[in-house]
Amino acid sequence: MKKKFIDISDKIDEFAKKLFLDIDTITKQLAVKPLIVGAFARDIILHYGHGMPVFRATTDYDIGIQLETWDVFRMLKEKLIDSKNFKETDTIHRLINDDELIVDLIPFGDISDIDDTYTWKDKNKTKFNVLGFENAFKTASIVRINANPIIEMKFASLEGQAVLKIISWDESNGSREKDAIDLVTFMISHIDAGNLERFFEENYDIATKKNQIKWEDSSARLLGRDISININKKTLIRINDILSRELGKDESKLVIDMLKSNIGNYEYNDYYSLVNSLYKGIQDIKSTK
């Protein structure tokens, strides 16, 4: 798959643009690479990239930072605060800019332990899992924030975001219903999010498979295939474990959480079918590797 390019330089609101220009200035000084994830990345890819409606507006910005050492993270925070455009909060990785926009900095890369986790040095000793971030960085879409001068940043693609949502939902022991709801959005939107031609030219076999009759199920299965193409073995094992566990339950907590998304006349079995199609798509590619 080709990496996708989206130009939002004349669409992004001025408050968000200023925030990203400030982030870009400091990260370039330190030669570190940001990755935009979370709700804003979702909305940019779906709404500005493909004209789909925004489901939940956000004033929170989640920014992954690929780092080699914690010293660089400390320098990044210091420089952002010293710029006078950001101020500290009681949360170690959270800043607020001068327009009151919330920024969560999420380090990933060589700073994490072998299990892709690390523990924040805060009073709660909060453990954080960044499994999937490297894959999201690898498969990210390029988004133009500003035209003159040209400023472009990496935004997690739909398949990258889907992986992060599955892991985040599981890490929270099912308490993050919005992760399950976002996953539904990614599954039903994937074909229409710039993949229609590729679906008919390269993946039309999906629509002819036994019991694969719903357009949304076909979309979920294509998403599963796209997830599996570039995912590393460790992340693939984790995603497979989560999905196979949930599909094997009499009542899946993941599917129950998806019921909160209120899509049309969807019921439990419809959401279960989406998850099952996603899982099958992952197995389609896994079986050919």
Are there runs of 5+ residues with pLDDT below 50, and where?
none
Extended strand count: 10
Shape: globular
Strand order of the largest sheet: 1-9-10-2-3-6-5-4
Number of helices, where a helix is a run of at least 4 consecutive DSSP H or I residues: 12
Distance linking N and C termini? 16 Å
Helix content: 40-55%
Query: Would you give the CATH topology of the largest domain?
Result: Beta Polymerase, domain 2
Rounded radius of gyration (Å): 19 Å
Structure commentary:
- α9 packs parallel to α12.
- 49% of the residues lie in helices and 17% in strands.
- It has an eight-stranded mixed sheet with strand order 1-9-10-2-3-6-5-4. It has a two-stranded antiparallel ribbon with strand order 7-8.
- With 289 residues, it is an alpha/beta fold.
- The longest helix is centred in the C-terminal third of the chain and has 19 residues, at 268-286.
- It folds into two domains: 5-156, 2-Layer Sandwich (Beta Polymerase, domain 2); 163-286, no CATH class.
- 38% of the residues are buried.
